[in-house]
Amino acid sequence: MSRSRNFITRRAALKTGASAAALGALGAPMIAHHALGQSAFNWKRFAGQKIDVLLVKNPRSDLMQAAEKAFTELTGIKVESEQVPEQQQRQKAMIEFTSGKPSFDVAHLSMHVQKRLSEKGKWMDDLRPLVADPTMTNPQFDFSDYGKAGLNFCTAADGKLNAIPTFVDYWILYYNKELFEQKGVAYPKTMDEIFTAAQKLNDPAKGIAGFVSRGLKNANVPVWTSWLLGQGMETVSSDGKLLTDTPEAVWAAEIYKKLNRDVAPNGTVGFNWNECQTTFGQGRAAMWLDGIGFATPLEDPTKSRIVGKVGYGVVPAGPKAQHSAIFGDGLGIATASRNKGPAWFYVQFITNKANQLNILKNGAGSPARNSAFANQDVVRESKFGKQWFDTVLASAQIGRPGLPVIIPVTEFRDIFGVALTNMISGADPKTELTRATAAFKPVLEKSEQG
Amino acid sequence: MPPASEVTAGRVVRSSSHAASRPPVHDFSRKYGWFILPALIVIAAVIVFPWLFTLWMSVHDWNVTGDHRFVALENYRRLVSDERFLSSVVRTFWFTALAVIIPIVLGLWAALVFHRHFPWRGILRTVFVMPMMATPVAIALVWTMMFHPQLGVLNYLLSLVGIPPFAWVYSPDTVIPTLVMVEVWHWTPLVMLILLGGLAGLPTDPYDSALIDGASRWQMFRYITWPLILPYVMIAVVIRTIDSLKVFDTIAVISQGGPGTASETLNYFLYLQAFQFYNIGYA
Fold it and tell me: How far is CA A423 from CA A215, A217, A403, in A?
């Protein structure tokens, strides 16, 4: 009897066949539409050509390089790409773009640093005509899927689309749930409450700091600008005036000073993100303000002692506003490139929905496409937990640039970074900001001349 | 008797009686002088031209992002009034002084120890020179981890003997001595090797005489070893001074010139100007 159940009867086979036919008939238009979308677009148009790509060394670039094989199989375009460490890549891009004959067709740009520079130097080609051209852009590319934060970084003041966003980094507040529970402290709702909570959580006798963030010159500036965004203000106004010595900027610097001086670990003046990550990951700090991308090491038991105890929160509100400082990368095509067609095919393929989702799946950061976060399977399977996804989506709603859109961003970070480290050592915020503003003003003015 | 020949200005001049009977001497410098042309071209290309080009850039306001314009000596005027530059010069000399004197003293002491015969001397010498074989960037990364004020092994070791944690490179007050400590660890073996070579070549007679005369160990070192080894010490000082003045990698990796500008030496200052701020003319 049990044996007979394993045999397929003629009636069952007919029923199954009929069902399959019905399903096929229902699904056919969808499949046909999908196939039409694929077949109508000629991916082989530039087969046999070759492009060079300049990338920054990071896990996202690893994924891009891993996708090159599929791209070449689809298009017949050969890709030569290289990953260069961030600082050196920026120098290489600067020198080669300025020479007028870059050795690459596609370049990764850190738009939070290179946006204004690339616009003024006319480094990148305007991608709008390519996006609008149905013969050049796959209908499934879905440009409307890109979030506003990433697109703002890649769009110039005159509307030119200089790059396709690949990654947006939102600054969030990491917190140690266990330490919060032990002390009965609630997640802070305002920036002032961060300090109050940090004071309660600070326990030097046990080697636990209430708060940790970057103190190292240059790296520390986004921490200060994050607090300044709470005043609804950035460091440079839309008409290019420095707002760095305003009362709001001084208020933000005072917050920075007391958090990094009164409730931070010893030596925070020399901390970059890696020291902060180690300190927080070893359970030695209750809160940490930094980019969203650190969930991967914090949830990795080989690198962290607080796996499963990490809380992810949106940056609390300041006196006038609530914003998350954002930073973004993009892929663009060099104006001087002679292979713009194949270069665009590469850019649209490497930034398609599947490849952007892959970034999220692999814990390589937060992609620029909204659809990646809407994928419930990824949310369910992720080791980061729902709170991380909720924090990303909420931060995206309140994202605002964490660095000014100016040419001398690095010099800005250096001069104000030194001022901030001096504050940690005890200097007066107002005096330091006044001095730094006076030092940076001529640099900014000169940068827009010529 | 007058000499048959004499050397004048590097060339052999024969007396007239011999000159008549012997074939004339060829002036090879005229015939083959152009052989030095390739060397001259290389020197001009890799030494003279960069120097002249650097001087030319220095009198221009030259930023990679924009055009360059002639500014005469404006960059030099700005340099002498730039507090950050002046501080970096002072800091460089301070760093160099420490990074030369300490390895010389320790290297001399190590050389004197390893010059003596004792069991396991060969193995211990090898162990002592091992830091020198390490890549500066790699060792800088390792030291960075060890310096971590909360989680670094150095503060852990201090805690075992009841000493409170030290700030190492995470304080403006201690960053330079700490960076010097890395340099000392890395390059004292080089000084030891140079001086050990010098000690190995010293004659034994003066020491035998000194022993017969009843000289103490200190007297033998002060009046025999030290004067004889001094040329080798000077070689070590020159090499260490050059190396210390050009240190960049250790500082760039460990402290990045910080905290603030507390470890910003001249090289790091120039690096920032040229490759971070792109002020090529000023740099």
Answer: 10, 11, 20
